[in-house]
Amino acid sequence: MSELDYAKLKFMAGLEVHQQLDSRKLFCNCPSILRKDEPDFVVERKLHAVAGESGEVDIAALHQASLDKQFVYQGYDTTCLVELDEEPPHEINKEALETALHIAMLLNCKIVPVTQIMRKTVVDGSNTSGFQRTVLIARDGYLETKEGRVGINYIYLEEDAARIVSREKDKETYKLDRLGIPLVEVVTAPDVKTPEQAKEVALQIGDVLRSCKVRRGIGTIRQDVNVSIRKDNRVEIKGMQDMKIFVKAIEKEVERQKELSDAKKFIEMEVRNVLPDASTEFMRPLPGSARMYPETDLPLLKISRKFIDDAKKNLPQMKGEIESGLKEKGLNEDMIKLLLKRNKVEDFKVLLKVLDKPSLIAKMILIFPKEIAAKTKKSLEDVEDIVEDFYSDILNKLIKEKISESDIKDVMINLVSGKDLDGSIVSEKADSGDVEEKVMKMIKEKPGLSANAYMGLVMKEYAGRINGNEVMKLINKFLS
Fold it and tell me: If pLDDT is split at 50, 70 and 90, which confidence band does 478 have?
């Protein structure tokens, strides 16, 4: 690929980042659970394009409708009539709304206090109603990059689409489990001047999103990039989640557009899908504003000053700030990554107020449960469900010297096996003076044994009421 002069090409790009939020669904109370089991029922639909607020039918909607496909929807006991488009939407989910405000605030956006919930025509089968509900939450933000400031034009809160199961020539099948999961869309201004800057923007937005209450895992975030050169038509590239080919995909698209432009050929306004080799293929015409029209089943969304102020009070820390704070506590990078990955930072902070021993607490909530799960053949989730309620009590037992640090995992194992907290502690700890005297006496009475042999005898004598490390120190003291 030849070297491209992006400034000379008048390269412009902007990003659209879609992120699922970790709450119940946006316009009903159904849980945001993805199902793997067989559906409880199916319904079949055909969808038709309708005119938007301008009175025109969107070109992308017309294209999809012209395919005349039958759509099959698989439903579950976690699916309600809202998702089937047989019942009006409920009031917007307040937890999702607060998370959307957090994202907007961290991206320096201005909150829109009164806004109209809109319907966006979508007749590709991914919505049972033929439209997606979306609402503008904030606008006019920004983030700083090495190559200058990039504006954040809009932040929307909207419903995610149904999940594709299979595609055939005349029929497509979807699951309704994902339909309605809250989704934040972050739309940047076309301020991006190079592919490398586009990647930096994507990573920065990703850091903001992961600092908030969002869902994690494959399929929970989707990134699109809009690209144009020489002030010509823009092209939207879908599926830009793989950061390893992010820059290359933009470079290839610019090269493709340049070849068309140099040959005086028309650059179509279209949506293209990125392929594993970073090239792109045509998907559909680029949607326009004609597909938007007001949601008539819901009133205006009014975000009160109190709701905004409360959201500010609960504003999460950025991931980088959290990492710095954890490093200051003395945790290594592996522990920090694990705390973030397992969403245990808040648990860690709460327990640190009980006892200021960061490494011990990190082991309690990250390492010990995993080891206990392997030992007891239980799932990690089952182990955590049992022991999480006892963390503070265990630390208080440690503070009162009812147990030692080396006893904590054994106490947790006993809890998992069904004992209560007091039953998980074998007995009160032995007096340290008595233990020292017993060790000295045993070595005199049975000379010539190894340190490990003495250790076994002493531990058997006290039946768990002593700390093994302390016993070994005493043995080595008297043997030396």
Answer: confident
